Amino acid sequence: MALDLHGYTIHGAWQKFNIVIDQCYWNGVKSITVITGRSGPICREFPTWATNHMRVRDFELKQNQGSWKVYINKKKV
After folding, report:
1. CB-facing half-sphere around the CA of 1: CA atoms within 13 A
2. What is the dihedral of CA 54, 56, 58, 62, to 10 degrees?
3. What is the residue-level pLDDT of the chain in tens, covering all 77 positions?
4. Which of 41, 60, 64, 67 could bridge 35 with an S-S bond, Cβ 3.0-4.6 Å?
5. Who contacts 19 (Cβ-Cβ below 8 Å, separation ≥6)?
6. Is the pTM of this model over 0.85?
7. 68 close to 62: Cβ distance less than 8 angstroms
8. CA 47, 21, 60: angle at the middle one, nearest 5?
9. Strand ranges in 2-55 using DSSP code E only, listed in sequence order
10. Is the dihedral of CA 58, 11, 2, 37 positive or negative?
């Protein structure tokens, strides 16, 4: 699954990220690729968003440096 944040404002991208991560958690999705672009404000802000989201277990910059792999916490039963 992938989330492309191109074309969003910073605030809009942050809101969309939060909504999608929550949906992934509730649907049992283990990881997602988030496309931010290689530079720009969304790419710079993304680590803060991921670090502060309670459902994100870990994240890493993918090799092409324009996207992030986000690992989501396992849903508690």
Report:
1. 15
2. -140
3. 899 999 999 999 999 999 999 999 999 999 999 999 888 999 999 999 999 999 999 999 987 778 999 999 998 77
4. 67
5. none
6. yes
7. yes
8. 35
9. 2-4, 31-35
10. negative
